[in-house]
C-alpha cells in the first residue's frame, strides 16, 4: 500500500513545513477545484502523468495557466515529437499508487515511483503559495515552493524546476536541453500499458494479433465467389459511425467492416503472390484499415469515462466523520 493522505500530512508536520489544508468534495479537474479554493489567494496547479515509448514515466506539475505542449516537451527530452503520451490509468495504481485525479508532486513519495521523473514548473517559485492534492482529491493543501522543496529533498529527490513553455531548437548542433531528466535507471515495464488501453494506447496490437489468427485460418479456405465482388469495393469506403450511445451497433459495424476487409484481401492472385506469407499480409492490411476506427473508439470511451467521473464527483457530497 502506498502513502495515505493522513500519512502525508503527518510527514509534512513532522518536517515542520508550513501548509494549510482545505477539505472539499471530490474533484477531477482544475476548474472543479477552483470552485472551492480558487478564491483563497494561492495558485492552482495541473499535473500530468506521462510515459514514453520505452515505458519510462514522468510527472509534470505546472501552474494551471502554463501551456504545456507535449510534442515540444518530448523533443526537449530527446524523445522525438511523438515520444510522450498520457500514461494508462492502471499505471496510477501500479506506479504512483494514487487514484484518478490525484496526481501531484507528492505522488513520487512511494517507493514504486522511485524511477518516475518529476518536472516542476519554474513558475511555482514566483507564487506565494500553490495548491496541490495531498494524494486524495477531496482535499487541497497550499504551500510555497520552499516547503515543496523541503519535502522532496526529505525523500531523496532533487527538485527540478524548468521553463515548460520554452521551445528551444533541437538539432544536430543543439542537443535536447532536458535530456538529463529522462530516467536512465528505469526498469522496462512492457506489460503494464497493455492491460487497459487509453486514447493514446490504442488496441491496434491486440486486434492485429486476433486478425492475424483469423487470416491464417482463412488462408487454407478457398475464396468464395463473393470475394471478387467485395474486392471491387473501395478499401476506403465510409467508415462505420461511432455512436457513443449504441456500442452494440458500432461493434457490429466494425465486425462487418473487418469481415469485408478480410475477404477483400483473399483472392487467387494474392494467394499466388504471397503464398505462405498471405496471413501476415492480410493481417497487416486489416490492421492498417481498422487502426483509426479503434483509436476513435478508445478516445470516446476515455472521454466518456472522464466526463461521467467528473459529474459524479461534483454531485457526490461525501459525509465527514
Structure keywords:
alpha/beta; five-stranded mixed sheet; 40% helix; ProX/PRXD1; YbaK/aa-tRNA-synt-asso_dom_sf; YbaK/aminoacyl-tRNA synthetase-associated domain-containing protein
Please characterize this protein's 3D structure:
This protein is 40% helix and 12% strand. The protein is of the alpha/beta class and 321 residues long. Strands 4-2-3-5-8 form a five-stranded mixed β-sheet. A three-stranded antiparallel β-sheet has the order 1-7-6. Helix 6 (204-219) runs antiparallel to helix 10 (278-315) and helix 8 runs antiparallel to helix 10 (278-315). The radius of gyration is 24 Å and the shape is elongated. It starts with a helix and ends in a 6-residue tail after the last helix. Mean pLDDT is 77; it is low at 188-245. It comes from Hibiscus sabdariffa. Residues 164-208, 222-242 are annotated as: Disordered. Residues 24-150 form the YbaK/aminoacyl-tRNA synthetase-associated domain.
In short:
With 321 residues, the chain is of the alpha/beta class. The chain is built from 10 helices and 8 strands. A 5-stranded mixed beta sheet has the order 4-2-3-5-8.
The major beta sheet can be summarized as: 5 strands, mixed
Molecular shape = elongated
Annotation field: number of helices: 10
Using the CA coordinates, give the radius of gyration. 24 Å
Q: What proportion of the residues is helical, as a percent range?
A: 25-40%
The mean pLDDT is: 77
Using DSSP, what is the number of strands? 8
Which strand order do you get reading across the main beta sheet? 4-2-3-5-8
Distance between the termini: 23 Å
Structural class: alpha/beta
Low-confidence segments, ≥5 residues, pLDDT <50? 188-245
Following the backbone from N to C, one meets helices and strands in this order, namely: HEHEEHEHEEEHEHHHHH
Question: Per DSSP, what share of the residues sits in E-state strands of 2 or more residues?
Answer: 5-15%
